[in-house]
Automatic annotation (TrEMBL):
UniProt feature coiled coil, ranges: none
Domain SnoaL-like: 9-101
Pfam families: SnoaL_2 (PF12680)
Protein name: SnoaL-like protein
Species this protein is from: Christiangramia gaetbulicola
UniProt xrefs under InterPro entries: NTF2-like_dom_sf, SnoaL-like
Amino acid sequence: MKEREALIKKLNEAFASCDTEFLAKSVTDDVKWEIIGEKTISGRKDFEKSLDRMRHGGPTEIKVSEIISAKEKSVVEGIVEFYVEPGKKKKYAFCDVYIFSNSDGSKFKELRTYVTMLKKK
C-alpha cells in the first residue's frame, strides 16, 4: 500500500501543477471521472480535454490530509485552492475516490470527486 500512497500523492501533485501528461498516462482508456453533482467525464479523450482546460484556471495548491487504501480503491481527503478570478482564490474541501484497474495498479479507471466550497471564518 506504500506504493499506492506514493502514487496518490504524485497524482495530487500533478493535478496541482497541471501536469496533464502524467495524469493522462495514469488512466485507463475507458476512464470515468464523476464530479458529483456537476458532470461526468468519460473516456481518455474527454479526460484529456478536461485536463487541458485545467491549465486555464486549475488548482493552485492541493493539501492532502488523509489517504486510505483498500484493495483497488483509495480515498483522499484534502483542501484545494482555485483562482476564481484574477487575484482572488477560494478554498474547497474535497474527497476523491480512486478505483484502480485490476490489471495495472498504476492506472485508475474511475475517479469520483466530492467537493464543497469553504466559507471564510
